[in-house]
Design goal:
Length: 265
Amino acid sequence: MTWQLRLAHLYPDHMNIYGDRGNIIALQQRCRWRGIACEVIPVGPGATIDWSDIDIAFFGGGQDSGQALIAEDFVERQGPALRAAIDAGLVMLAICGGYQLLGHYFLTHAGQRLPGIGALDVYTVGGKERLIGNVVVDVNPDISGAAFRLVGFENHSGRTYLGASVRPLGRVLVGHGNNGEDGTEGAVYRNTIGCYLHGSLLPKNPQLADHLIAMALRRRYGNVVRLAPLNDALELKAQQTMVERMLGKGRWRASRRKINQALNA
Ligand code: GLN
């Protein structure tokens, strides 16, 4: 039997910065390598979609202006059915601006209140200074049953605060995360994950990509599903290099010492 997944990509023309579309490419390619059919359905302004027919939803980041253009369409056209699908266990990944719109609202730093669909119990308030830079996150092990680290890049003015019915995706070892205050990054509710990690996130972090694919397949085909392993040596090496570089370990620390010595000489 050929397994099949249907992937909905929300507002691909408005919400796609820092290569967020790479997440779709990574999911498709990792499915293709395993012989899993994967159809991508773009969901733009005015689109109608049956969310009960979707296995994975993806919503990328955007500028405040891009979010403002689609927020009303998103909340009114997709909100109730998407929220119900998320409650029912839809597998979803939302990055930055998309993450914010899954929450209750985003009050921009200019004072505009953008409504969200309230599927995630979070709210976001824009600050004057943007939170920018590379990020390393220790993922909460009970999210996928395994401990792993994520690397990514953040650039947001929004500070996101988590309510009682979500749990953080993980803790920041490097970077600002949800709000630069409480050390958390991202939010998880049922099978939906929101976070601030651009990158693209999934090509850099195959563990998370496979967690999403495995959850979606199990939801559709049951617990019998086992994902065939792929050779991720290169991806994991790149990820580890970035972690070491960010945590200042090993040769990165040594090379930084050399640079500092040279600068101070
Ligand atoms: N516009 C939002 C903010 O600045 C989201 C940014 C993004 O998606 N990178 O907080």
